[in-house]
Specification:
The chain is an alpha+beta fold and 157 residues long. The chain starts with 6 loop residues before the first strand and ends with a strand. It is built from four helices and seven strands, in the order βααβββαβαββ. 23% of the residues lie in helices and 36% in strands.
């Protein structure tokens, strides 16, 4: 990873779309996270709640993230509204360099800016899953399971 001044998030545009679509995780991780193309399709149909961004290190695309903003968690008319990280894809050859941490910290900063007090994430359980990564960043399991995935929460206060 280069200096943090070279790291930034970029909106997905026609100019960087090809770079975003080129982000591929390790083969053993493909079961745990959807490809970027799926995420962009979901962002298209959920424009009010999806926040997709390309993770850049200088002029290189090293990853992709998509946050969810103010969603109706139980789809029951709004009894629980949450924001958090929907997808995180770090390119296979770029993993272990701090880009995932940068992505999570960037989403946390955006959520704080929007007034959120908690940051949610879900992950596939299993040996090759990202549980250790998220727990290492301070997320805690809240006891919920959503669509077969473990739910974690990070306090933003």
């Amino acid at each position: 990873m280069t200096t943090t001044t070279a790291l930034r998030l970029e909106e997905i545009t026609p100019k960087n779309l090809k770079a975003a679509l080129g982000i591929r995780v390790r083969p053993d991780q493909e079961i745990a996270v959807a490809p970027v193309v799926n995420s962009l399709a979901e962002a298209y149909v959920h424009p009010a709640s999806a926040w997709p961004r390309l993770i850049m290190d200088g002029d290189r695309a090293v990853g992709f993230l998509m946050a969810f903003l103010d969603i109706d968690w139980h789809e029951d008319g709004g009894s629980v509204i949450r924001s958090g990280l929907w997808r995180l894809n770090i390119a296979a050859q770029e993993q272990g360099k701090g880009y995932g941490r940068f992505a999570v910290e960037s989403v946390a900063e955006e959520l704080r800016r929007r007034g959120a007090r908690e940051f949610y994430v879900t992950w596939e359980p299993g040996d090759n899953g990202p549980e250790g990564f998220y727990l290492g960043l301070g997320f805690r399991k809240n006891g919920e399971v959503a669509e077969g995935e473990t739910v974690g929460v990070l306090d933003l206060d």
